[in-house]
Design a protein that fits this description.
The protein is α/β, with parallel strands linked by helices. It has a single domain, classed as Rossmann fold (3-Layer(aba) Sandwich). It is 32% helix and 17% strand. The protein is built from eight helices and nine strands. Bound molecules: S-adenosylmethionine. S-adenosylmethionine binds next to helix 4 and strand 4.
Length: 248
């Protein structure tokens, strides 16, 4: 057994674990450092429905279990609100499939719009220090359809192209009670929110997936701009999500 593995095992046997130290850094004027909360309540470990869906989608997502669980829980609480669901930034369909599966269990049976260019990230600007455009193009609409079919989901519509620019007609009359924005860059995320917000009822939620990550620094800039708006409650979840609640 290689020395590294042996050392890890020996330290593990003593009840400790070693992990690589992530350095803190300043990106775009904002401080990023490892976040390690002390809380231990872990309801995802008792939730067999979540566990079995997460197991099916985990190889099709870049999103960790904690954020996936939060999506699962939030979606599950939105049955009382009118409106459909929207995800922009689908990639290989992992979080989209999780949302579809959970939405299907709601009495309101919302349709989930799943939107992606399937050609990678677009609208990167000089605000986005780690993106230039075209990242995450290693997917296809077919990959997403196969994942959804495997989970037995039929409550979705896939919109291929830049959102909202290419889909104004298809969704202009829609209302949304839940919007998941996972597009990595400032301008793309802003355009999605500007489109969706007037179409959302009071109490509806927006989740920005990328808020807490230094590679997606443009999203922290954007969410910061919403912090003083009187119609928004902004929640910074330490798992990396930012959540907006529509309050007026
Ligand atoms: C990080 S990936 C999404 C990850 C996915 N939610 C998961 O479960 O891992 C970001 C995706 O956003 C898409 N994207 C970015 N801006 C977009 C836009 N304005 N319209 C449609 N798709 C967009 C990219 O093509 C890319 O697939």
């Amino acid at each position: 057994m290689p020395l590294k593995q042996l050392t890890k095992r020996a330290i593990g046997a003593l009840g400790y674990e070693i992990s690589r130290r992530v350095k803190s850094k300043i990106v775009g004027g904002k401080h990023y450092a490892p976040v390690r909360p002390f809380a231990t309540y872990s309801p995802w470990l008792d939730n067999s429905d979540f566990a079995s869906v997460y197991d099916r989608i985990k190889t099709n997502t870049l999103v960790d279990k904690f954020r996936c669980y939060e999506l699962w829980e939030l979606v599950g609480q939105l049955g009382h609100l009118p409106g459909n669901f929207l995800e922009v930034g689908v990639w290989r369909g992992g979080t989209g499939a999780l949302i579809c599966h959970r939405a299907n269990c709601l009495p309101s049976k919302p349709t989930v719009y799943l939107c992606d260019t399937f050609k990678g990230v677009c609208k990167a600007t000089d605000k986005d220090l780690s993106y230039s455009g075209g990242e995450h193009a290693d997917t296809s609409e077919q990959d997403v359809r196969e994942l959804l079919a495997g989970l037995g989901c039929e409550n979705f519509k896939i919109l291929t192209g830049i959102f909202p620019d290419d889909h104004l007609e298809a969704v202009s009359k829609e209302t949304f009670s839940f919007v998941h924005i996972d597009v990595d860059v400032y301008q793309s995320a802003k355009d999605v929110l500007n489109f969706a917000w007037p179409r959302m009822p009071v109490g509806a939620l927006v989740v920005f997936d990328d808020f807490g990550f230094d590679t997606c620094n443009g999203i922290a800039i954007l969410v910061g701009e919403y912090q003083r708006d009187s119609d928004k409650l902004v929640i910074h979840n330490l798992n990396g999500h930012a959540i907006l609640v529509k309050t007026a």
